[in-house]
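I'll show a sample.
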Amino acid sequence: MSNKDFSKIKSNSEPGVDIAVLQSSTNESDQQHLPGERTTEPLRAKDIMKDGVHTVKRTTPIYQAISTLVGRRLSSVPVVDDNMGLVGIVSEKDVLELLYDKDFKGGTVEDFMAGEVVSFDAEDTLADICDCFVNNHFRNVAILNEDKLASVISRLDIIDANKDKFQRHNLSENASQRDVFNARDVMSYGLFTAKRQTPLYEAVEILLKRHVTGLPVVDDYMSLEGIITEKDILKVLYKPEATAEKVGDLMTAELTTFDCNDSLFDICDCLINNSFRRVMILAHGKLTGIISRTDIIEFILKHKTDIDKQKPMD
């Protein structure tokens, strides 16, 4: 087991923070390996870091930061100073709450950013970062090198670096405007799905190639049975005793869903008040679409005036 308890971060981090500042050191003797796996140096953040981090500064207009989030399909954007020191974060959840507020008039990033964020050093192990992801709701962590922002690592980056572990387990497996906006106006169609018997490696490949955070699990009739997410997969990456091979072994069965005729405002409230990023949309009990925070942010930006008129009084 890791010698650090990342479960404490959850109670100390802000609900809207998606890049969570944690400086950690790693005890290499604590690293775990799958049965039969040759003991080697553990993978570290520096081994999978990517260049070209999208950032903003305190003085950046908040709408410019929103544009970066939406245009780049990011869940959060780090706030840095002139020396690339990490000073805060702006997340999609924070933005969604801002845009949903009728009194929001804009401003600079400094007015709305979260100042406390969790970061790792480039020398920290992926096992520790994975442990942090499993015990918290955020999807990305900032990576520092000599106290300067060097990169960002996501849940999918961790999964990508470890996807061969699942290959080993599976070698034997071959709006139009109207009175009320509802889910149908916003939801995305053409979903990627999995079934209970889908090999985990195939599900991981879809997550990585399609850049999605989870796959709905359905039966032959498109009835929703659960979801397999990045976080579900991270839970078994560094556990040698894990025997999961199929999506059904790891999927989350309890889900929050909405009907395609449900109010957009109810869905927005749900995504503001919970840590998950998207909800499944049903029609006649069958999976028909999905709505993410980013989907709603884009819709609000296009229809802000009409939405303010329709929004129910508090």
